[in-house]
Amino acid sequence: LHTPMYFFLLNLSVTDLGCISTTVPKSMANSLWDTRAISYTGCVAQLFFFLVFISTEFCLLTVMAYDRYVAICHPLHYGTLLGSRACVYMSAAAWGSGFLHAVLHTANTFSLPLCHGNAVAQFFCEIPQILKLSCSDTYLSEYVVIAVSACLYFVCFVFIVVSYVQIFRAVLRIPSQQGQHKAFSMCLPHLAVVSLFLITGAFANLKPPSMSSLFLGLVVAFLYSVFPPAVNPLIYSMRNQEL
Fold it and tell me: Where do the coiled-coil regions begin and end (predicted)?
């Protein structure tokens, strides 16, 4: 199991565990004690760590797309292009990008003055809900941060798409059906995880304003923050005999 794919899978598992641990335990405790309280420091920490893990996860999924690309399109160079040092550097870059993204968003969000009460209409501290509490009319800095985030996610998305275009072209050139099936099987778990991540994230961020009820907001937040990390281990372990 000490291969690049499983090394990246280990990192992905840590981010999934982190996403769940920053949101679910606190909401469960609040439900058990029939309260909705969270300290200001706790809210800052929850938002920061959630952003670290969710951003790092997308960066890792991008790196894993490159891993699948090299394994299928350049199998003879796999050991050279994805040696242990290269894997460590790429995972460190993913974690570093997630950390910087989280610092930027957290610092910017909580630098705004909050004066419209202290009730967050969500089961965890979410940026859009916190911004609703702000009495500042100038969201220029937040728009800049969102633009930077959009560029990061767009670059990762384009890299994943280009990688899979090359992968599918290479797979279709394989003469045997058994070889094609094996190659597709290698990519299927990663494709499923990426699709789940993108679909839930896009629905959460691009839903129309008319769909803004409290219940729907809770469901959407659950879908993108809890559902993918909970399902990812099942996706990767169902058809994996080694795992």
Answer: none
